[in-house]
Design brief:
elongated; twelve-stranded mixed β-sheet; 14 strands
């Protein structure tokens, strides 16, 4: 591993982000790592990453000059995205990704694909309006009644739930079949799923609860 931490890590990409993103994530995940051009975005908001990982096709010379060379980790292979390179080379209890949504649709889909292919990584993506993560085998999330809970399958998966207005028990989720968008919490929710294939999306304000849920869940997928 390039980065090994006992504390959660904020991972910054080159997509859409704001100062509010750093203000929200750094208190929860104080370590900062950049995926390639994410280094420029971090520096622009006054934050210096402890490591930069990627193929370095988007980081600027200015950013490279501002970051010590020993903290720059070039991975030239082109068979993976910079998000994937960084995700697999960071070991931490939890990773919160910012700057990985909202810019290009193909990049965003590739990030979702990576989450499913590295299910052992506890990772949350922060978007402009939502937070997104891969559902662990089972978890409890403390949210208020009326909170929107969307579930989208990246493969065939089933599950059971408690605390959702429309329970998912008995449903057969698939990318070309049943999805679970725009469900609603009736209070704290409990969800268990059969495979690491289901993405959950909730309002951005739920990030602290989602961090707590993923850190405290006793079970998680194995790589």
């Amino acid at each position: 591993m390039i980065v090994s931490s006992t504390e959660p890590i904020t991972l910054v990409g080159g997509g859409l982000l704001s100062a509010a993103d750093f203000n929200l994530t750094l208190p929860l995940a104080p370590g900062l790592v950049a995926a390639d051009g994410g280094a420029d975005r971090a520096l622009a908001f006054g934050h210096s990453p402890q490591a930069v990982i990627g193929d370095f096709d988007s980081i600027t010379d200015k950013a490279r000059a501002a970051i010590p060379k020993e903290q720059q980790h070039l991975m030239a292979e082109q068979d993976s995205t910079d998000f994937e390179k960084a995700l697999r080379e960071v070991s931490a209890p939890l990773i919160i990704g910012i700057g990985f949504t909202g810019a290009r649709m193909d990049h965003q889909l590739a990030v979702f694909n990576t989450l499913v292919r590295y299910p052992e990584k506890r990772c949350i993506l922060l978007g402009e309006h939502e937070v997104l993560a891969l559902c662990p085998p089972s978890f409890r999330l403390d949210v208020a009644a009326g909170t929107t809970v969307s579930l989208f399958p990246m493969g065939a998966v089933e599950g059971v739930s408690d605390g959702l207005k429309w329970p998912i028990g008995g449903l057969h989720f698939a990318p070309d079949g049943q999805s679970g968008t725009s469900n609603m919490a009736t209070g704290p929710i409990d969800i268990a799923v059969t495979a690491p294939k289901l993405l959950m999306m909730l309002p951005r304000a739920v990030l602290p609860q989602m961090v707590e849920a993923l850190l405290n869940t006793a079970s998680h997928w194995q790589g």
